Input
Amino acid sequence: MIISPSLLAADSAFYGDQIRTIQEAGAQFLHIDVMDGHFVPNLSFGPTIISKLRRASDIIFDVHLMIEHPEVYAQRFIEAGADYLTIHAETINDPSSIIKVCANNNVKFGLAVKPQTDFSSILDYFEFIDLLLIMGIEPGGEGKSMEVETPKKIAMAKELRKKISTNFLISVDGGVNNKTGKLCFDAGADVLVAGSYIFNSNDPKLAVKGLLNL
Ligand code: DX5
Ligand code: ZN
Output
């Protein structure tokens, strides 16, 4: 199980310390949410902040682009230090050009789907992705409850992955806590993204360790 704490829920005055804390607890990824005020109503990090964080930590940057026209910005997030670059299936008809840019730069490529988006429109790309991000909540939010259908969707993704004999990570984002995380783990999730459950807890280290040992 890979744990990817979501920086959005961390305290911006102490990013460096908080990243070190979750890394010491065993988190392998850091989830970084990029929001543009169009695809989602909120705004968050841009490439400048990410490149500064890159200097502070060598943890794997799991960058989740919740932006329109990801093809225009992909290169900038790669240069900023993304290790995984995930774009939303709803924002693009054909991700081939971004897949190429990622491959040329040795960056892993991911596709994300909103809770109401099924896999039919992205099946053709399953053999080219490194990560499938299944949203448990509407993108843009945090601290919300996970949609109950999410574990079923994870199990479906796992089946499809087997059928196509390909090998991407299945990640789940939104509403992950020790209970929903266990359901997702049992359904076949490889990566748990968790924001408020980790950073709003009294002991983020313990929260990460709890998720690692589900
Ligand atoms: C949702 C973001 C998430 C968010 C999750 O818009 O993509 O990564 O930080 O927050 P929690 O874990 O609190 O649902
Ligand atoms: Zn996210």
User: Anything to note?
Assistant: The beta strands are 2-5, 29-35, 60-66, 84-88, 108-113, 131-135, 169-173, 191-194. The longest helix spans residues 150-164. Helices lie at 15-24, 47-56, 70-80, 96-104, 150-164, 178-187, 196-199, 204-212.
